[in-house]
Give the backbone structure.
Amino acid sequence: MKNNYVATVVMVLMLLVSAVSKATHNRSGEILYKRLPPFTNSNYTYSISVVKYFDDGPNIADRCADTIFFGDGSKGIALRSNGVSGSCCATSSCGVMISTYAGYRVKMSIYSVVHTYPGPGSYVIRSSDPNRTSGITNIPNSGSTVFYIESVMNLTPNMGENSSPVLSRPPIDRGQTGQCFFHNACAYDLDGDSLSYELITCKDQSGQTVPGYFLPPVSTGGSFSLDAVTGLLTWCGPQIQGVFQIAFLVKEFRKFGCPGTYQQLGYVERDMEMVIAAGSSPFVFSSTGFQDTCIVAGAVLSKTLTASISPGSTIEKRLYGYMMAPENAPTAVFSPTLLALQSGFPAVVSWTTYCSYVQRLPQPLYVAYTNPNIPIPMTYYRQMRVKVLPPSPKITSAQIALSKVTLQWQAPALCAANISGYNIYRKFGTNSWSHAPCETGAPSSSGFSLIGSTSSSVTSFVDNDLWTIPNGSQGNYLVTALMNNCAESYADSAKVVTLMVGLKENKLENSVKVFPNPFSNSFEIQIKGSEYYAVETTLYSLDGKLLQEKGYQNVQNSILIDARDLSPGVYFLKLKSKDETANLKLIKE
């Protein structure tokens, strides 16, 4: 075993030395990572992959291995893991060619290694390699400048699964002078974390801005920007031909807890080249059908997308994003993929959803439209977000007793193993609310209030907090499912009941009087009996919402309540002293 390891290291070193004389080859790249199980606080093992996009051809370096610095003071050698049969090799058959256009050949190579970190902390994973390609317009002496990329992981206890954003669209888009250039990394996160984008400068081997670097130039009236939400890079429009280099971050954030607060888990840096050639035929493009949507797990999403292009052109479409991830099968189909000459053609996206797709946030679907039949193929991007929701529980019965309602519901047959509990909502009076598309739970604007929660094993709830409600009032109840990742289901149709409320007689109730009632700006609570020296008062609105709660000590027969802030209407007042309570109905004029 030791001899085999030594032989591998020697082979890798020989390959690295032989490539030094063929060094100007790095076009683009990024570093991805994925945590490996078990996800315990004593194991922080990650699979790390350096993805690099090389120039290709005679006398151009073709690395078989790469050195990765893990950020914890150690480093390792990662062998190329794609496009090979058996162990990595140094022949042209290694890696995968992803662009074979004349004058623009790009090979993608992936270098993978497994590393275990000592524990929680922030780690900068980096890779540097001689050198960038020659002739980059905005990097002086680029052929002698080391290519550098990094990613950051912020490891915390109890973080569970953790993978970097996946940049599913390779950086091979090209543009024309006088035409807007577009690129989207089509990033997604398998863990459902929130992503944002930030433009940065290209870096050298020290992690600092490359000396002399500048952003691609913008002409009068033009623009160069990266959308922080959608990830769309737009350059309108390049005026000179050349090769330009840019870099940006894809940052990931996660909410811990329900509702929780966001924390940044890290980022991936993409350093990429943009090739701008002389302008040729414009590529006119427009599209429809890209609206955000929601779907309940188990259903099939079907979306019709329409595109219009230049007359006489063909267009190639490709799907990217979460639904096309290899971990998801994939279960998404886009048909047809290559469309003929006419404009306004429809294409249908079909996606079969499962419980494993339920996330707290919507997931992006990207479509890249490319015209491959013009001298410089140009790509346009469209995006929509799809949120997969958990199924809703169904209320099966509501048993009505004196001052009490007992609810029972049926757990969803699908996703039951992923449910952490249930939320119960209530509203008094008439109800005309129903959830809007993608509106989960019961927002405050619905008039419903959260009155309780249960664990996943409990499918019943007793509501005995009805003392303020007049007998014969209408009660409306909703139950929603809450998933392990805090995603909440739709609220199904409300269960409507007529309440039977009885208030228990007691000595305090016979000793209390409110004057005046109705009142205008204030009212006085008059109490008979010296034993009621400590009193708590609670004021409720007609629909049961708590408005005011106060405690009084050494009460001398009466309490004056200032109610100038209350709107005219009906209110309920609850008094508590010793072990007795009194309930009073008030009217403000």
